[in-house]
């Protein structure tokens, strides 16, 4: 047992997603009820530790009245800007505030930290933990499902459900009006949501940042559908898929200089309309994918990850991330996952499935045909 280490901090960091409250509940139930520890919820990711006094609250199982398990968002708040090692100031400068975070952690008299985040957040938390000699366990979450080393990150399943539901709603209206419907979905630099939702939702074309496409290839697919007597088509585009120039469509940059994608759906819609003369409509799903009722899969994974994270601390382990692999919860060194986003494997099972279904997912590359790493549904978190 982890003697003397009884007061742990818990934070959520990066973009929110469905299932975070289930993870918070699991950590609190296991640590407080199970082990008699204290859990301190830190507000707005590391931002709560920059405030003086630090912004935090003691969490007890009483806080979870039965509704939170079912609610998206995070009761602790979060942020996906304000990297403490390069913290943006209003005058445009970036300053290192990491020591203040470590000091905030000390002021709260915490013995260890559990951080729920994507690979960017976990990478920052690891640097902070090393600097402050803080025992840290990471829990992977991101709708994008691009954390390496785990088949599942919290939030992806709900986003996938929302995107698939959108296709279910678009198909009848597309068929009623003889239209091509373009659906733009999220996925910063990785096309897992687009690929899995496209397959699940019966898309005819799926465009990803990982696979090059040609407008002529999309047009040929739509023409082939017409030749078969089909009067509609469904196209799913990942927000980070590039234009034909190879550049992504960037709407803006946030305070930390991070590119905010959005608009590729309209570009693709316009190009399809020009090339095929089809009537096209575009839907940009956006942040809808981050909310809603968490699916059972996200609640389940969040619960498993939360309990296992506490158990790792209880066993005296740190600098590790909990993960789901081979139908089991495992853990791996955080060093193995940081700065290595897991992108769609062009030779993986889901691309092969999509092609096998006749979906246009971009041009076939030489390496793809020779086969690659067997992903066995890893990309979808299936
Ligand atoms: O990483 C999760 C994510 O939802 C991405 O899919 C998307 O590009 C980004 O966050 C949006 O960030 P923001 O909430 O700052 O608009």
Topology, element by element:
Blueprint: E1 7-12, H1 20-35, E2 38-42, H2 47-50, E3 56-59, E4 87-88, E5 94-95, H3 98-107, E6 112-117, H4 119-132, E7 136-140, H5 156-177, E8 179-185, H6 192-200, E9 205-207, H7 215-227, E10 233-238, E11 250-253, E12 259-261, H8 264-276, E13 279-284, H9 296-314, E14 320-325, E15 328-333, H10 349-356, H11 366-369
Parallel strand pairs: 1-2, 1-6, 6-7, 7-14, 8-10, 8-13, 9-10
Antiparallel strand pairs: 2-3, 4-5, 11-12, 14-15
Helix pairs in contact: 1-9, 3-4, 5-6, 6-10, 7-8
The chain binds 6-O-phosphono-beta-D-fructofuranose.
Residues 15, 80, 118, 142-144, 186-188, 239, 254, 260-261, 290 line the site of 6-O-phosphono-beta-D-fructofuranose (F6P).
Characterization of the model:
The structure is a single chain. With 382 residues, the protein is α/β, with parallel strands linked by helices. The chain contains 11 helices and 15 strands. It has a 7-stranded mixed sheet with strand order 3-2-1-6-7-14-15, with helices on both faces. Helix 3 (98-107) packs across helix 4 (119-132). The two termini are 34 Å apart. The model is unreliable at 370-379 (pLDDT under 50). Bound molecules: 6-O-phosphono-beta-D-fructofuranose. The site of 6-O-phosphono-beta-D-fructofuranose (F6P) has 14 residues, from strand 12.
């Amino acid at each position: 047992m982890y003697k003397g280490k009884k007061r742990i901090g818990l934070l959520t960091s990066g973009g929110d997603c469905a299932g975070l409250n289930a993870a918070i509940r699991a950590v609190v139930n296991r640590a407080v009820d199970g082990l008699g520890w204290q859990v301190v919820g830190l507000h707005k990711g590391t931002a709560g530790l920059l405030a003086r006094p630090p912004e935090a609250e003691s969490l007890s199982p009483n806080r979870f009245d039965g509704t939170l398990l079912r609610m998206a968002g995070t009761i602790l708040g979060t942020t996906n800007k304000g990297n403490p090692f390069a913290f943006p100031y209003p005058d445009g400068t970036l300053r290192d505030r990491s020591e203040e975070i470590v000091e905030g952690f000390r002021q709260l008299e915490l013995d260890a930290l559990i951080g729920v985040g994507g690979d960017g957040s976990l990478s920052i938390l690891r640097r902070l933990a090393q600097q402050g000699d803080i025992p840290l366990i990471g829990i992977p979450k991101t709708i994008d499902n691009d954390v390496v080393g785990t088949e599942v990150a919290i939030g992806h399943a709900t986003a996938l459900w929302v995107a698939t539901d959108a296709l279910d709603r678009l198909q009848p209206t597309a068929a009623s009006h003889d239209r091509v419907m373009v659906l733009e979905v999220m996925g910063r630099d990785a096309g897992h949501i687009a690929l899995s939702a496209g397959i699940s939702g019966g898309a005819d074309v799926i465009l990803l940042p990982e696979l090059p496409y040609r407008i002529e290839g999309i047009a040929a697919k739509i023409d082939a559908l017409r030749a078969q007597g089909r009067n509609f088509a469904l196209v799913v585009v990942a927000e980070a898929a590039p234009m034909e120039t190879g550049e992504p469509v960037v709407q803006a940059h946030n305070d930390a200089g991070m590119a905010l994608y959005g608009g590729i759906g309209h570009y693709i819609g316009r190009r399809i309309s020009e090339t095929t003369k089809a009537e096209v409509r575009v839907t940009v799903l956006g942040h809808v994918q981050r909310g809603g009722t968490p699916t059972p899969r996200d609640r389940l994974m969040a619960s498993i990850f939360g309990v296992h994270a506490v158990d790792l601390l209880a066993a005296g382990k740190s600098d590790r991330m909990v993960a789901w692999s081979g139908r089991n919860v495992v853990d791996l060194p955080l060093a193995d996952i940081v700065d290595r986003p897991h992108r769609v494997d062009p030779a993986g099972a889901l691309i092969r499935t999509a092609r096998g279904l006749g979906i246009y997912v971009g041009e076939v590359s030489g390496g793809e045909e020779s086969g690659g790493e067997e992903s066995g549904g890893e990309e979808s978190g299936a």
